[in-house]
Amino acid sequence: MLELLGQFEERSQFFNLFNYITFRAQGAFFTALIIALFMGAPFIRWLRKKQGKGQPIRTDGPEGHLLTKKGTPTMGGLIILISLMVAALLWSDWTNAYVWAVLLVTFGFGLIGFIDDFAKVTKQHHGGLSAKLRLGFEFTFALIAALIMLAAEWIATTPAGPHDPVGFFSALMAGEPLTAVALPFLSGWGVQLFAFYVLFAMIVVVGFGNAVNLTDGLDGLAIGPVLIATGTFGVITYLVGRVDYSAYLGIPHVAGVSELGTVLAALMGAGLGFLWYNAPPARVFMGDTGSLALGGLLGSVAVATKHEIVLGIVGGLFVLETLSVMIQVLVFKFTGKRVFLMAPFHHHFEKLGWQEPTIVIRFWIIAVIFALAGLATLKLR
Asked: What is the pTM of this model?
């Protein structure tokens, strides 16, 4: 799209605006927002008609869920994904490898989630794809995306000449800066993982995809913190993509990664449009279709910007939700006792008698605190 608009640049100064990432990010935001808002209501009616009973509600969950959430359609994540994809493709630079890598993960994880949701709705049972099959596909998409992003970084940082696969894999084995993990509060590169960085990147993408998925248990609970983390990484991508700002802050510089700002802006718009319908009481759930895709998107952006550890801080709420499940399972396995009344631990507070909107808003506040802590790592080095 940018090449097409470039042909008109000499005729009108207006078209020069499309060279600025800030302008295109705003365009992506409003495009996705408008699409999500306008398609939301008719799409929800269509989902309700097709799904009938809606998403199956856990019988062992909080007592009020069977009454208040029964019949609510799922797969609302399609509203986000369609809006996001259209806006990102309209406003992004199609020659940027990072854009395609992130969109690949988003689409791939969304497809996995859709298949899982479809199986649950048709069978009216919580069992969708098997865990092994699901994780196998997730790691496959994450592997492809990680290699694309690493290859793009390698090409940008190596002298002009033939860029053959042998040279790329040699660079991975040699432990060049592209395979190092930057540490918060420290300037420059951090821990060198060599070729194991690829596995690390895959774990970050898959892990965060499933972390967001675990958090999606109350109306508006997942999408709010996702939007907060998205805005935070919008700032990070812009700074990492600028040589001057990254040098000043002592953070890794990755050429071309700032283009991901258009994708993140599109997610912001699509997410806000979806929140209009997902706010308590929700008219639609995003389902695995949305939660897996959004988590995978944020994980892949963290890998692209070399801020994987910072993602754990910015997305600290998702990390805590995941840890609550792991702790609950491990303690129960070895002692037969439960740490929480129910995991993930947002359900623990429901069991304690907290109202759902209270939990959601307080968790949003926690997400903001984590986001500010993550941004602080950029300066405190």
From this structure: 0.91
pLDDT, one tens digit for every residue, the chain (381 residues): 555 555 555 555 566 677 789 899 999 999 999 999 999 999 999 988 887 665 666 555 665 554 566 778 889 999 999 999 999 999 999 999 999 999 999 999 999 999 998 888 877 666 667 889 999 999 999 999 999 999 999 998 887 666 788 888 888 888 778 898 988 877 766 789 999 999 999 999 999 999 999 999 899 999 999 999 999 999 999 999 999 999 888 898 999 999 999 999 999 999 999 999 999 888 999 999 999 999 999 999 999 999 999 999 999 999 999 999 999 999 999 998 999 999 899 999 999 999 999 999 999 999 999 999 999 998 876
In the chain, domain spans: 25-312
CB 353 within 8 A of CB 293: no
Ranges of H-type helices in the chain: 2-6, 21-51, 63-68, 77-91, 97-123, 131-157, 165-174, 196-215, 223-241, 243-249, 260-278, 287-304, 308-314, 316-335, 345-351, 356-379
